[in-house]
From TrEMBL:
Source species of the chain: Candidatus Electronema aureum
Name of the protein described by the UniProt record: Branched-chain-amino-acid aminotransferase
Keyword terms: Amino-acid biosynthesis, Aminotransferase, Branched-chain amino acid biosynthesis, Pyridoxal phosphate, Transferase
Top-level EC class as recorded in UniProt: transferase
Cofactor(s) needed: pyridoxal 5'-phosphate
Length: 357
């Protein structure tokens, strides 16, 4: 494959910076973006770091009709030594390529795109928030741009990366959430696209989220589509339980997203001598283990929150309180430890950090 040439076109007018104390999530975007195009003749071409701005799309662009779209989410942090650090970025770009294969889209040259990403983050370094817990959220995405109404894998695509400074996920401190156990709607079925980070999965989940919210819950716990019995994921995070002091998390079987934070939790737990079991776990088991006191913690894992402790599940009108509704020691230790690894405060024993600066 020929080397990707990346053009740099800097913005002439820098945007006003947001209120750093009130960033929220995904509301402000940096000065630049990375874009490149693909067609079957030229492959990836016209790679460019350029001023952030809107795209022009044909109304017949296939993404608008058939949702051929994939995305990723990762973060950059200020390192303890003044560097700007990316956490496991190649894992995200490789996962994007696995999503691409599932959705009949072209794979990207991950290492060259990582170089472009580093260059762009360095260019927009003034947008990486300084506050503890805050970070620069990075959103790579690919869309089908071929103008055609008539279903087939598109012959033209656009890949882009945009970045937004985000505040600490827990602005008011680390607080356990109340989760609605969804036993009607499902997220993914065996043989479907559950393990791809593709837009349609998220559009399909909105109804369940809205209903969970109306019931006073912040997220949905998804169950398996066949029996509505086994736990799958929580919202857009993977799920962990602590039972008899060991971690339990559903196995990657095609219907759940292979989270990089999930993998980080499993590896860090192994480093710490905490046993982890990747196995199916049913709601019946959770109810019984919560009742007999062997289930002491539950938490979600994902890039946005890192660790999101669960204080309560609402399941068929009954409340299941976990760990007295408080954040447990393992969730707390993972939350603190992983954040320190992401910022280079703890030694990078797994080679997870990539310096942008
Ligand atoms: C992105 C995502 C996750 C978490 O993945 P990370 O790589 O840890 O951020 C989990 N579940 C779903 C459905 C997701 O979209």
């Amino acid at each position: 494959m020929k080397k990707l040439e990346i053009t740099l076109r800097k913005t002439e007018t820098l945007k006003a910076k947001p209120d750093w104390n009130n960033l929220g999530f995904g509301r402000h975007f940096t000065d630049h973006m990375f874009v490149m195009s693909w067609n079957s003749k030229e492959g990836w071409h016209d790679a460019e770091i350029k001023p952030y701005g809107p795209f022009t799309l044909d109304p017949a662009a296939m993404v608008l009709h058939y949702s051929q779209e994939i995305f990723e989410g990762l973060k950059a942090y200020h390192g303890a030594d003044g560097s700007v650090l990316l956490f496991r970025p190649l894992d995200n770009l490789n996962r994007l390529n696995r999503s691409a294969v599932r959705m009949c889209m072209p794979e990207i040259p991950a290492e060259e795109v990582l170089e472009a990403l580093k260059q762009m983050v360095a260019l927009d370094r003034a947008w990486v928030p300084q506050a503890s817990g805050a970070s620069l959220y990075i959103r790579p995405a690919m869309i089908a741009t071929e103008a055609a109404v008539g279903l087939h894998p598109a012959n033209e695509y656009l890949f882009f990366i945009i970045c937004c400074p985000v505040g600490a996920y827990y602005a008011e401190g680390f607080k356990p959430t109340k989760i609605y156990v969804e036993d009607q709607y499902v997220r993914a079925t065996a043989g479907g696209v559950g393990e791809a980070k593709t837009g349609g999965n998220y559009a399909a989940s909105l109804k369940a989220f809205a209903e969970a919210k109306a019931k006073g819950c912040t997220q949905v716990l998804w169950l398996d589509a066949a029996e509505h019995k086994y736990v799958e994921e929580v919202g857009t995070s993977n799920i962990f339980f602590v039972i008899n002091g060991e971690l339990v998390t559903p196995p990657l079987g095609g219907t759940i997203l292979p989270g990089i934070t999930r993998d980080t939790v499993l590896k860090v737990a192994a480093d710490w001598g905490i046993k982890a079991n990747e196995r199916r776990i049913s709601m019946d088991e959770i109810i019984a283990a919560a009742a007999d006191g062997s289930l002491t913690e539950a938490f979600g894992s994902g890039t946005a929150a890192v660790i999101a402790p669960v204080g309560e599940f609402l399941y068929q009108e009954r409340s299941i309180i976990i760990g007295g509704g408080k954040t447990g020691p393992i969730a707390q230790r993972l939350f603190d430890g992983i954040q320190q690894m992401q910022r280079g405060i703890l030694p990078d024993t797994h080679g997870w950090l990539v310096r942008a600066i």
